[in-house]
Amino acid sequence: MHEVDLATGKNLHTWNGIDGGNGSNLPLFDIAHSYLYSGEQNGSNMVWIYGYYVSTLQHPDELDAGAYSLQQTLATQGANFFTAIANMGYYDVRVGSTLCPADVFVALDDAGNIWTLGYVYYNNTVKMYTLDDVEKTTLPELSYPGFDQYDSSMSSLVYAEEESGDVLYLSYFNGETNDIYRLAYSTDDGGDTHTGMPACWATWARGVACHSVLPPLFPPPPARPATTLSP
Question: Which of 176, 203, 158, 214 is nearest to 31 (CA)?
Answer without folding.
Answer: 158
